[in-house]
Amino acid sequence: MALYARHPRFTVILLILIFISLVMFASDSESLSSVRSVAFSRSRDAVLAEVLASEEVYYEEMVQRRQQLIKKWGPTPDKVDPFPSHGEFYTLWDFFLPSFRCPHRVERVGILGDGGKWVCGLERIAPKRECTIYSFGVNGESSFEADLMKAAPGCQLYGYDFSVRSFGPEIEEDRDLKSRSHFFSYALGSEDKHSVADDPKTYTLRTLMELNGHDFIDILKVDIEGNEFDSLSTFIDSFNGEPLPFGQIQLEVHVYPGSVWNEFPKFLAWWEKLEAAGLRPFFSEPNLVYINLVRGARPDLIEYSFINIRGDHELVSNRPPSSRSS
């Protein structure tokens, strides 16, 4: 107070200078913090990219070993019996191992047993304010979808199954989950057939995404009793080499006796189409429940989980969603 009484103008100027200095210091600190945050994000992105690149090298080695196995039991693809019965020590699934490691947490979601699935990086999807799940093949059991939605409250679920009229009780009996779920008695197919005369009404995946106004699916589940081959082939072909618009797919593969997909060259070509589109299997689980129920049956059914290594989404990028291209 004594200083102000003697030199009022000087005191006011001094206080103004101190205030400006404090503001500039705070601004500089905020800028430095922002720079550090960006640098840290870039560093994490570089590490993730390095992990994915390393896994791709290992996966390519597995592809080469697949060719060696074909030569051993073929020696050409047309000579390979998918499920041999003359003492050979292999099955179809030994040629297509889940040799790509998901760079995030891998966890089983849903019931333990038939119906549950293995998911990559759910902890990265769960915080999103908006996310999308598609499920093809409901069959009255929805524990997988229900547990996903409980973990990710921002997710909307779109389910399709022409053989039932609703989701399973895990969703139908939960008010919150039901409010975020949308069920349609449609079939997934390789072409659109949904006229008045068509039963069931069939849609391609791309058409359904367009109808729903979606350009990306966070988690895609497909269990459609053998129709997965043509349906996914059509979907992949429709993008002409562009990244597929989903982060991962949980897929049950059905290779029934008498099916054209029971021919090794045909199956190999389909699998290589998935690989060329950027899909890498990180987990597989033979359907032993099916083998136990149908005694004497071949191991025709197997669950695969694939990560999409192409595109710009949570599983392959650390950047915030707002900075990603759709």
Report strand order across the widest sheet: 5-4-3-8-9-11-10
Largest sheet: 7 strands, mixed
Low-pLDDT regions: 31-41
Radius of gyration: 27 Å
Question: How many DSSP helices?
Answer: 10
**Hey, roughly how much beta strand do the residues contain?**
15-25%
Helix content: 25-40%
Query: Element order, helices and strands?
Result: HHEEHEHEHHEEEHEHEHEHE
How would you describe the oligomerization state of the chains in this entry? Answer: single chain
Tell me, rounded to a whole number, the average pLDDT: 90
- Secondary-structure-based class equals alpha/beta
Distance between the termini: 62 Å
Q: Say how many strands there are.
A: 11
* Global outline: globular
Describe the structure.
The structure is a single chain. The protein is α/β, with parallel strands linked by helices. It has 10 helices and 11 strands. The protein has helices at 2-6, 8-73, 122-125, 143-151, 169-172, 175-179, 205-212, 228-237, 264-276, 288-293; strands at residues 106-109, 117-120, 131-136, 155-160, 181-184, 187-188, 202-203, 217-222, 246-254, 279-286, 301-308. The strands form 3 sheets. It has a 7-stranded mixed sheet, sandwiched between helices. It has a two-stranded antiparallel sheet with strand order 1-2. Strand 8, helix 8 and strand 9 (246-254) form a beta-alpha-beta unit. It is globular and about 105 Å long. It starts with a helix and ends in an 18-residue tail after the last strand.
